[in-house]
Amino acid sequence: MDELTVLDLFCGAGGFSEGFRQQGFTIVYGVDNWKPAIDTFNHNFDLDCKVQNMLDYLYSVEKIETLPDTTVVIGSPPCVSFSNSNRSGKADKSMGLQLIKAFLRIVAVKKHKRDSKLQAWFMENVTKSISHLSPIYTFQDLDLVDWAIASGKAPDDIAIVMKDHSLVVNSANYGSPQARKRAISGDIIRLDRLVIPTATHRNPEDETSSQLPVYKTLRSIRECLPSPNIPQSHKQFADSMYPGLNLSTSLLTDHFYDTGLYASEWKNSKYLKVNHPYMGTMSFPENEDKPSRTITATKIGTSREAIIYRSEYNRHGDGEFRTPTVREAATLMSFPSTYQFLGSEGAKWRLVGNAVCPSVSRNFAATVRAALELPLIAEPIVRRVPKLKGVKNLNTFKEGVFDKPPVRNNGSRFRRHPFKHGNITVTLSNYDITNKEKTGFRWITSVQYGNGDGFPTMNFEDKRFTDFESIIETFPNGKRFIEVINNGFSESIASSPTMQMMYEQQQNIGNYLEPTKLIERLATIIEQYAIKDVFEQRELVIFPNKTVVPQSQIMALYGINKICTVANAPEID
User: Fold this and answer.
1) Which of 29, 76, 208, 376 has the greatest number of beta carbons closer than 10 A?
2) Can 79 be counted among the known catalytic residues?
3) Which of 396-410 are b and which e, b meaning 16 or more Cβ less than 10 Å from the residue's Cβ?
4) Cis before residue 285, ω within 30 degrees of 0?
5) Rounded-to-integer distance, Cα 353 and Cα 330, Å
6) Distance (Å, rounded) from C-alpha 244 to C-alpha 379?
7) How many CB atoms lie within 10 A of CB 114?
């Protein structure tokens, strides 16, 4: 058979192509509209592709004809609007559908042209994209009527079949140390179907495939990669993803630099992971005995989705926790340690996070080889020595300096609660949660019932905390709790404008605590004095529609309402 060749559309960093190269395919061309992506693609596959907009192929068959005819066409249309991060489902899907259409037009022309060389095509996307695909696409659906007629086909002939040609795969099943679920659509043309690759690894809870090795874990990768804080050396290390690939640490790029986070950053992430208002609890730092969570295209250390490790540097507060290095992220995506990424740190992270895991695409490449009755390549073909010329290496071999703490935007919204007990949260906010409206320089006490977005919310006016004193005094340690709140804690509450300023600057002023610290301090006090008991609401109902409530939540309501009452009180000259 002729040489096995690949055309990669929306090629990005080239992860999809890398998996095919590892199975003996030659990558001949890539299309992307982002320069760091094309630069990275060209660098790793020794090509000279130019930046192009895939939408150009939506309107010009002549432009499609200029693309090389290959054995396989692959592509990853960037459909952010289909992503799980678009939880509301209200994002505009039209651009995503247009990009998919551009891809399918190219596949249709390459598949149905006379003397076609195409043997297979594959399209990768987020899982929710499947529901937006049509069961079939005719030439008319793809605006290829004139081309179809000129090629001896009718406009309503089927050009592409999608029904039963799409599935969701988890990269962990194919040796990637990351639980990354993605949709793969496609067709092996001589079989007229999409072949599901045989899994190479299994979930340890799955007893039916016990002969397979279990998922690779985050710990297995972190233990094999050199520590990011070691001195520069020529010590050899073995790439855990590619047995037999050994590399000097002096040749390992984008790994030996400090990714430590300011305390304000990692604490925000921790709060969202372990104490989110209405979402489940996540590990902080990461649970290393499982595959990593999904690497995202945006590297941030303050979000719920952030991947956070404890730093190798012995630090407390600033720099105590860190995000992965670009090399760690690339390894979790199953890129070989010799694969290079071009651009700034942010660009490299985006290239990695948007990529297709080579371990996944390698297994789909194997299904093509099997369909063509070609032998499987057992040991992946990878570059043995990194190509470093022209690569801006992120390595510094220096510990970071934390002297420029991040600040928030003016008017940033604040919402925090000490804990979730009894399906209730008691919240301090600088906006009205019931209608999302800002309140200027006023702080609000509110209670939320339930754990879902949009759950019932009830606001409490200032000075209500005094109504609860007689109840709290009946609690064990209740009198002591009230004494601590009113003598010590209350002195750390600033005026409303100062509270907002401290929140935006993420720092305390004098004896005043910024609001995140106030909530942390309140939670500590309640933990110290509360017991795990409930209060039965009879004559006095504090939380409507509740028969019993945790005593800790009444304490939380007392403390937060005290904060609002003090902060919102008019200043007297």
Assistant:
1) 76
2) yes
3) eeeebeeeeeeebee
4) yes
5) 8
6) 9
7) 6
Class of residue 145 by CB neighbours under 10 A (exposed 0-12, middle 13-18, buried 19+): middle
Query: Quick one: which H or E segment has residue 549?
Result: strand 548-550
DSSP state at residue 485: I
Is residue 551 a contact partner of residue 535, using CB atoms and an 8 Å limit? yes
Let me know if 539 is exposed, middle or buried by CB neighbors in 10 A (0-12, 13-18, 19+). exposed
Q: pLDDT tens per residue, the chain (573 residues)? A: 579 999 999 999 999 999 999 999 999 999 999 999 999 999 999 999 999 999 999 999 999 999 999 999 999 998 665 544 444 344 457 788 899 999 999 999 999 999 999 999 999 999 888 888 999 999 999 999 999 999 999 999 999 999 999 999 999 999 999 999 999 999 999 999 999 999 999 999 887 767 899 999 999 999 999 999 999 999 999 999 999 999 999 999 999 999 999 999 999 999 999 998 888 899 999 999 999 999 998 888 999 999 999 999 999 999 999 999 999 999 999 999 999 999 999 999 999 999 999 999 999 999 999 999 999 899 999 999 999 999 999 999 999 999 999 999 999 999 999 998 888 899 999 999 888 777 777 999 999 987 555 568 889 999 999 999 999 999 999 999 999 999 999 999 999 999 999 999 999 999 999 999 999 999 999 999 988 888 888 777 888 878 889 999 999 999 999 999 999 998 644
Nearest-CA neighbor of 98 among 127, 135, 141? 141
Name residue 313's amino acid. Y
DSSP string, 303-366: STT---EE-SS--SSTTSEEPPPHHHHHHHTT--TT----S-HHHHHHHHHTSPPHHHHHHHHH
User: How far is 210 from 218, CA to CA, in rounded Å?
Assistant: 21
Beta-strand runs (E) in 52-197: 72-75, 120-125, 136-138, 158-161, 166-170, 181-188
The pTM (predicted TM-score) of the whole model is 0.90
SS3 state at 159: strand
Task: Please identify which of the residues 11, 49, 79, 357 carries the catalytic annotation.
Answer: 79
Distance separating alpha carbons of residues 456 and 448, to the nearest angstrom? 6
Alpha helices, DSSP H only, in 485-543? Answer: 496-505, 515-529
Contacts with 59 (C-beta within 8 Å, 6 or more apart), sequence order: none
- Domains, the chain, ordered by start: 5-206+353-371 (3.40.50.150), 415-568 (no CATH)
Note whether 173 and 354 are within 8 A (CB). Answer: no
Helix (H, G, I), strand (E, B) or coil at 86: coil
Q: Which residues of 451-468 are buried (b: 16+ CB within 10 A; e: fewer)?
A: eeeeeebeebebebbeeb
